Amino acid sequence: MDVLAAMRQRVSVRDYDGHPVEPGVHERLSDLADGADHLTSVPPRIVLVSGVERTRRILTYMIGSYGLVHNPSHLLVGVLPEESDVARLDLGYVLEQVVLEATCLGLGTCWVTGSYDAQRAGDAVGLAPGEVAAAVCALGYPARDRWGRFHSRAVRYLAGGHRRKPLTGIVFSDRWGEPWSPGRAGPTPVTILEHARLAPSAVNRQPWRFIVRPDHVALALVQPAPIDGGIVMAHFALASAALGREGQWEVRLGDAALARVCGLPRGAIPVAAFRATRS
To answer: What's the pTM?
Structure first.
């Protein structure tokens, strides 16, 4: 399975069979996390926590919250070097690369950014002064029993995970609000944006908007959600590379100049600009 197929196939798996993942797979994912492309000079750490009892303790932050994710044998804990929006952006960017590789290897994953115990997650991985356990991602083999499949589908439906905004609702031409036409864009840009559109986000709110300009593609968020922003940036960059349009994101979080040139409305947050290095 290539990365584009992984983007199309990936779903949030909430029920696992509890069987541990083989050590060789651990090493492959850890090596990827350590060498992944990143957005900041000090990237996040991705640390594996193993064992159903240990993962259960971390996922029981609120009464009833553990019911949303059952029996993962592992958690990938995303650790920020310090608390900041740009560090959270980088965490989404790096950890989603690991998620997609896990999908390629036949593993299930599920991002968890709210209903977990950050203190227990931090204790499990060992935090240096200033570090923050900002998100966890369940990892393991999906449950095959009928109840497990039903539970995952039901929670995905209630969370709206089966719905995606159309490209014309999240992509603008040159400036915010200007209609963008897939028919005039060409097949490769459309395919890249389609795979970015498949990125996961908290409660499937899809807070990202793209502004396609002559020399770059700008990214903005309609609400503060830097981890979601980093996730969609990973999809866009990986899809671009897979289709021969390699490029690089320039982080411009909160940049008034980018907001002005893209005509962003009040409340929209400028995030980054992607420029192709090969087309």
So the answer is: 0.92
